[in-house]
Amino acid sequence: MPLTVVVADDEPLARERLRSLLAGQPDVTIVAEAGDGLAALQACAEHRPDVVLLDISMPGVDGLEAARHLAAFDPRPAVVFCTAYDAHALSAFEAAAIDYLMKPVRAERLASALERARTFLAGRASTPAPTSQQARTHLCARLRGSLRLIPLDEIHYLQAEEKYVVVHHARGEDLIEESLKSLEEEFASRFVRIHRNCLVARHELMELRRVDDGKVQAVLRHAPAPLEVSRRCVPALRETVKTL
């Protein structure tokens, strides 16, 4: 099975070594290289590779964070970590990696990892993406073949809109293809539900305000207007506001 590969490592010499090793492997084509996790995700969104060779310690978005986002890609690439440290092995497999190679990477271990990748790819359609045990620090929005990572700390609120969720954040708005329910479960410590179609960042809540028709609104630090609160959410939300 021919393989397309993205190589992601912040060290040019490490990428050069992987290029050299991959050149000796049959039916393997490098489609892109990246020096950090965000660039790796951008390359994967553009090229849709079969395999990503991913360093862990990289500036900005590290390899573990990148792998957690790659696990949600469709089609999902096979992730192989290439790292100088063995302390992250458990976290790597929790982030859905199929192999974990220690630097300096040996040719025979790389060949073995590529065979594992072929096995993974052959059964990918019937293999559900695992649920990471570590919380993400960003949400990932697709933008016409590229993507944007939105830091959770910059998100004001999340609003369901048909099959998408609109992320309202410090730099504007973006659509993501995730359910509000799954986001509520993953980020329960960060967001609170105020309506069946809306989650609000806890740090954004300022007050609850009752308006003339008896309805309750949530006033946020950075929202242009108050947001409607459903009746069923009012009691829990009042308790949340008291603790802020």
Give a short summary of the structure.
With 244 residues, the chain is α/β, with parallel strands linked by helices.
Question: How would you characterize this protein structure?
Answer:
This protein has a five-stranded parallel β-sheet, with helices on both faces. The protein has a five-stranded antiparallel β-sheet with strand order 10-9-8-12-11. Helices cover 28% and strands 34% of the residues. It is elongated. It has 244 residues and is of the alpha/beta class. It is built from seven helices and 15 strands.
Topology diagram in text:
Layout: E1 3-8, H1 12-23, E2 28-34, H2 37-47, E3 51-54, H3 63-70, E4 78-83, H4 89-94, E5 97-102, H5 107-122, E6 138-143, E7 146-151, E8 155-161, E9 164-169, E10 172-176, H6 180-186, E11 191-195, E12 198-201, E13 205-210, E14 216-220, E15 227-229, H7 234-242
Parallel strand pairs: 1-2, 1-3, 3-4, 4-5
Antiparallel strand pairs: 6-7, 8-9, 8-12, 9-10, 11-12, 13-14, 14-15
Helix pairs in contact: 2-3
Unreliable stretches: none
The share of residues in helices is 25-40%
Number of helices: 7
Q: How many beta-strand elements?
A: 15
Structural class: alpha/beta
Residue fraction in strands? 25-35%
List keywords for this structure.
244 residues, alpha/beta, 5-stranded parallel sheet, 5-stranded antiparallel sheet, 7 helices, 15 strands
